Automatic annotation (TrEMBL):
Alphabetized SMART domains for the sequence: HTH_MERR
Taxonomic lineage from the root: Bacteria, Bacillati, Actinomycetota, Actinomycetes, Kitasatosporales
Keyword annotations of the record: DNA-binding
Organism listed in the record: Kitasatospora purpeofusca
The name this protein goes by in its record: MerR family transcriptional regulator
Top-level taxon in the UniProt lineage: Bacteria
Limits of the HTH merR-type domain: 14-82
Family matches, as InterPro entries: DNA-bd_dom_put_sf, MerR-type_HTH_dom, MerR_fam
Amino acid sequence: MDKVEAAPEDRQREFRVEELAEAAGITTRTLRFYRERKLLQPPRKEGRIAWYGEAHLSRLRMIAELLERGHTLGGIAELIGAGESGRDVADLIGLEAALVAPWSDETAVHLDWDELKAAFGDQLTEENTVESIDQGFITVEDDGITHVSRRLMDATTALVAEGVPLSVVLAASRRTQEHVTAIAEIFTALVREHVLGALSADTPLPPGEAARLTEQILRIRPLARTVTDAQFALAMDRRVHAEYEALLRQRLEHRESD
């Protein structure tokens, strides 16, 4: 049977050094530096000519993406060294994205000084402003302030409108911050110790392990919020009932003493 030649479009494209550097948007000097740092897999040699393929171009594009994310070349080398293949490196990148993805979808809000005066009146003191800054909520600008969370700002103004002093709201906010930070530490420790233990080991992750961990993290993340919401609701039920019963007893005692 005659040998069938691969169609030109079926053959993987190959590049010389200069062609690969141009396709990746880098200089040949940078490309050779990556080779020296073992960030790029060895090329195919044909005599004295080095030929690079699509896999090399994909690796260079991945390196550029990681550099844009703030990774160092040393960190990228560790990522590449941890993977047995390009797929494993991509899985590690996916795991990183799942781990550091934002939990908050808060939007900032800007209020000018007239709006703040209308909301807080004479409670817009230097002391309350300093406390808000110290808690990390606001930045002060020439024309007003920017709050990191519209929802928290709306809640603050609503509580003040209901008669709760701004200083009391801020004190409650500080205590709440302390407790929710402790809750966050509980959940991060749980995941670190019982889910991500393999990441702290010196040995590379087995093939496919990063992808499995990513799926696990994506399943666990919403559970943390579910548990926190449920526990808070149950705690509020207990405290409200206890406070109400104490109030009834107090009123009853006053009546009996009259």
